[in-house]
Design goal:
Blueprint: H1 2-7, E1 15-18, H2 20-35, E2 39-44, E3 52-55, H3 56-72, E4 78-87, H4 89-92, E5 105-112, H5 119-122, H6 142-152, E6 156-162, E7 166-173
Parallel strand pairs: 2-4
Antiparallel strand pairs: 1-3, 4-5, 5-7, 6-7
Helix pairs in contact: 2-3, 3-6
Length: about 170
Amino acid sequence: MKKLLAFSRRQTLEPVILQLNEMMTDLSVLLNRLLGEQIELKISSGRDLWQVKADRSQIDQVVINLAVNARDAMPEGGRLAIRTRNVTERDSQRYQSQGMVIGEYVLIEVEDNGVGMTDEIRSKIFEPFFTTKDIGKGTGLGLATVYGIVKQTGGYIFADSVVGKGTTFRVFLP
């Protein structure tokens, strides 16, 4: 129910000043458990990372959902990299054509070497109830929830993917 409320933008957020590098360290134990032994997790923290103002549980949910999606895209195992870094106004210009406002952001990048997605699938991944999983295996709300949280926080999310190579999600938080 909480995911649906966040998705529908009715959930009350409790934004606080967050240091994402500390959050990633805190999440690493849980993520390793969720990912299992066949997936190697590497977390790389950007130096002198700027703080963001966001609801901690919501940002945790974003990272967890993206990690679980990555796990599901690597049924035989693989590698998952989570990276954080600052994005300057100049760096953000390359995403302007995709609708991102030029500005300073903190980036959370989640990259896997899983099965990847076609452009057709990628164009639908943030739609509620869209899933590529078998019936009973997924609700199609995970990435829609991620999208809703990121947007509600004032950020942006983009996905790049190559079939057979993997997928990279980039979450930009102001």
